[in-house]
Automatic annotation (TrEMBL):
SUPFAM superfamilies: Glyceraldehyde-3-phosphate dehydrogenase-like, C-terminal domain (SSF55347), NAD(P)-binding Rossmann-fold domains (SSF51735). Residues 134-250 form the GFO/IDH/MocA-like oxidoreductase domain. Transmembrane segments: none annotated. Residues 7-122 form the Gfo/Idh/MocA-like oxidoreductase N-terminal domain. It comes from Streptococcus henryi. It holds the Pfam family GFO_IDH_MocA. InterPro entries: Gfo/Idh/MocA-like_OxRdtase_N (IPR000683), Gfo/Idh/MocA_oxidoreduct (IPR051317), GFO_IDH_MocA-like_dom (IPR055170), NAD(P)-bd_dom_sf (IPR036291). This is Predicted dehydrogenase. GO terms for molecular function: nucleotide binding.
């Protein structure tokens, strides 16, 4: 049996705290869950046998058996908890969004550095399957010079609940899902981000955002777009899924769903040396938008990837045991938090914001 090297405590035993507890106890043979804590004792009734429960973070932090603490409380409490955990000399894995803004995050960096503890953020969606296919397609260069990467996520029912409906608790979809979609884009496109333009709206929620559309202009010529709507209605199967579209000068890729389907599409010689033909379409006669002439479209399968959210912890374990580097680095998350701040300025002032 593998020697247990990580001894976890979890602060906040709601949806995500319980998800972490299950992963640690069921799947991670190098880790042990020592204790969990939640201010609401009803949540502690969901604890399984084999680990302790506390009502107060301070009590959990006195437990000397714990070396690593996962923070899974609502977003506005992350800074307070990071400070407590760092002061207790324990390593910190904080849930996303790391902080409410870049200034808060800088304080987190300072306190964890001063305490000499490890510090990272739970951005497990860097190991989403559809994302890794999109990343592989883009980074392999198979599309030639990529000019657009679009990433969208649509849902039906507004889906805001509990503290997520309060701005002061860090509610809203930008903090909830936006942070994942933006982290994925920044981690994929290795280029300076020159400018950002964002639209952020409350469509059916009164106080927090439930729709956004964000354009990211990278120095290498890629335009990234992330769009999310929780009240984006369609009767189409698979609509509540994620959709990727990547366009390059040698092909396009479409990747649909978290269990992705799609393909890479290319033209044979359509892009070069083919005179415009007038085609009659429902939109009227066109030379640019008609269907491709017979035989001029070829498709290829998407690359295979083998990833899962468990990889997040496996890579963290590699880092702690000196077998690999930290994947979700504080400096990357600082850049992400600065981007979140720029998005809010852009949306409030209806203007493009220069970034780097
Ligand atoms: N990485 C992901 O995919 C992912 C998914 C969902 C949520 N999250 C993040 O996890 C965090 C928690 O979200 P959730 O959906 O689990 O919320 P939740 O409301 O289900 O759970 C939060 C828990 O924290 C407890 N709590 C509040 N104040 C506390 C305190 N002072 N001390 C101890 N416990 C306290 C609450 O009682 C509650 O049980 C958020 O930051 C959220 O953004 C991340």
């Amino acid at each position: 049996m593998t020697e247990k090297k990580l001894h976890f405590g979890i602060i906040g035993f709601g949806f995500m705290g319980q998800t972490h507890a299950k992963m640690i106890t069921d799947d991670l043979d190098y880790a042990e869950l020592i204790a969990v804590c939640d201010a609401n004792k009803l949540q502690l009734e969901n604890a399984a046998q084999g680990y302790d429960t506390y009502l107060k973070a301070d009590e959990l932090l006195k437990d000397d058996r714990i070396d690593t603490v996962i923070i899974a409380v609502p977003n506005h409490l992350h800074l307070e908890m990071v400070k407590k955990v760092a002061a207790a000399g324990k390593d910190v894995i904080c849930e996303k969004p790391a902080a409410m803004n870049a200034t808060e995050f800088e304080e987190m960096q300072r306190v964890t550095e001063e305490a000499g503890v490890r510090f990272t953020i739970h951005h497990q969606r860097r190991w989403d399957k559809d994302y890794n296919i999109a990343k592989e397609v883009y980074q392999s260069g198979t599309l030639g010079k990529t000019y657009t990467i679009q990433n969208s996520l649509y849902g039906f029912n507004g889906n805001m609940h509990d503290w997520h409906v309060y701005p002061e608790f860090g509610g809203g979809m930008l903090y909830d899902w936006g942070i994942h979609l933006l982290d994925q884009m920044l981690y994929m496109v290795d280029s300076k981000l020159v400018a950002v333009y964002a639209t952020v709206k409350n469509v059916i929620n009164t106080d927090v955002d439930d729709y956004f559309n964000i354009q990211l202009q990278f120095e290498n010529g890629v335009t990234g777009q992330v769009e999310l709507g929780t009240y984006f209605l369609s009767n189409e199967d698979g609509w509540f899924e994620r959709h990727w579209f990547l366009g390059g000068n040698e092909g396009s890729a479409k990747i649909d769903g978290f269990h992705p389907q799609g393909e890479i599409t290319r033209t044979t010689d359509l892009l070069r040396n083919v005179p415009g033909q007038i085609t009659m379409t429902a939109a009227g006669p066109t030379r640019s938008f008609g269907p491709a002439p017979e035989g001029r479209i070829v498709t290829e399968a998407l690359p295979e990837v083998n990833v899962s959210h468990r990889d997040y912890f496996d890579r963290y374990y590699d880092y702690v045991t000196g077998k690999g580097e930290l994947i979700v680095k504080p400096e990357e998350i600082h850049r992400l938090m600065k981007l979140m701040d720029a998005i809010r300025v852009s949306a409030a002032e209806h203007r493009s914001v220069s970034f780097e």
